Amino acid sequence: MGEAQEEQLDISVSLYVPLPGQEAEEATPTEHTNVANQSILLQQKNIIGRLRIGIFTFFLLAGQTVATILGRLYFDKGGNSKWMETFVQTAASPLIFLLYFLSPLKNPTTNDINANSPSKLVLVPIYTLFGIFLAANSMLYSVGLLYLPVSTYTLICASQLGFNALFSFFINSQKFTPFIVNSVVLLTISSILLVFQSDSTESKPVSKGKFVIGFICTLGASAGSGLMLSLIQFCFSKVLKQENFKVVLDMIVYPSLVATLAILVGLFASGEWKGLRRDMEEFELGNVSYLMTLIWTAISCQVFNIGCTGLIFEVSSLFSNVISTFGLPVVPMLAVFIFHDKMDGLKVIAMVLAIWGFVSYVYQHYLDDHKSKTEINNVNEEVPDCEGAHT
């Protein structure tokens, strides 16, 4: 009886003890399933991310083009208030509050740690300084639009990309490569060429002195925008230390509100508010068109801000600036048909140089992206070997 029980026990145990390699064979289908599921989720995430990038890119390009065209239309048809044109650039900023409810990120990410969140004593000065800076920069853009043809204005704005690269080198430790240097040089030359052109054939000619003032103001505004983007990127990485959409929206909304208040103070302090009724009555397209021009300028500016903000969150501030520069050549082409701007040889050369500088800059980003992907793939290929060494 004892031997029979022992044999029966051995048989029972053998039924439950896995054969060598059996565990690995059973685990393999599960591992393959997990990898397949992760691959599908990653593909879906990439598709959704690209869709969002496409939408934000459309918002940026459409908002930038419409705002520039309408801003020039305001001055070309009899509008003369620089403060009003500056005011509409930030007046519709409360519209961005809608994105707080449409944000795809309802909860903070793993990188958002409450202990790293700066206090209000730090945030308030940051938002205030950015707001005042934004107000001054918007005024420079308005003066540029007042005194320059829209084609010349937009081509000068292309220098913003070069300024952004220059400031990022000093503030964010961006490396300068031959392609980046080439981009900065070409964009700078394309802007300098425009100061020597004659604009006597434009729909609303101005004196040479006012043209130089418009050129300097637009160039200063482009430099200011490049500096602001670099400083915002610095604040995200060194001060805010958070990576959720709400933080990006805060950086856009609150400085815009401060800028709007500062512009209103300037509007009343300068006395231009007294002539707004006459400004509307003398508008060549009528009172309704006057109001609609200002309203849609304000809305298109915020559409641009939404697109710019979304691209900063999805990719980077530099990518957002690159897309903005990419859309600049569209405006001069439209200005030829809308405002009958003359596309002389000097403007064509300046546009070609600006596009060349943009392509050089984009190609450098392509090289950086390809290099980073290669490094990640190399690391992933080395992981199995390390595991095998441990076993």
Descriptive key words:
mainly alpha, 391 residues, single chain, disordered C terminus, 0% strand
Secondary-structure blueprint:
Layout (H helix, E strand, L loop, with lengths): L1 H15 L5 H55 L5 H10 L6 H5 L17 H28 L2 H8 L1 H13 L6 H16 L14 H33 L4 H26 L5 H6 L5 H28 L2 H11 L2 H9 L6 H46 L1
Helix pairs in contact: 2-12, 2-13, 3-5, 3-10, 3-12, 5-9, 5-10, 6-14, 7-8, 7-9, 7-13, 8-15, 10-12, 12-13
Structure description:
The structure is a single chain. With 391 residues, this protein is mainly α. It is 79% helix and 0% strand. It contains 15 helices and no strands. The protein has helices at 2-16, 22-76, 82-91, 98-102, 120-147, 150-157, 159-171, 178-193, 208-240, 245-270, 276-281, 287-314, 317-327, 330-338, 345-390. α3 crosses α5 (120-147). The longest helix is centred in the first third of the chain and has 55 residues, at 22-76. The model is unreliable at 1-27, 105-113 and 385-391 (pLDDT under 50).
Helix-strand sequence? HHHHHHHHHHHHHHH
- Please outline the major beta sheet: none
**Rounded Rg:** 29 Å
Q: Which percent band covers the strand fraction? A: under 5%
Specify the overall morphology: globular
Mean pLDDT: 78
**Through-space gap between termini:** 45 Å
Q: Given the helix and strand composition, which structural class is it? A: mainly alpha
Q: Quick one: how many beta strands? A: 0
Residue share in helix: over 70%
- Characterize the quaternary organization of these chains: single chain
pLDDT below 50 for ≥5 consecutive residues: which ranges?
1-27, 105-113, 385-391
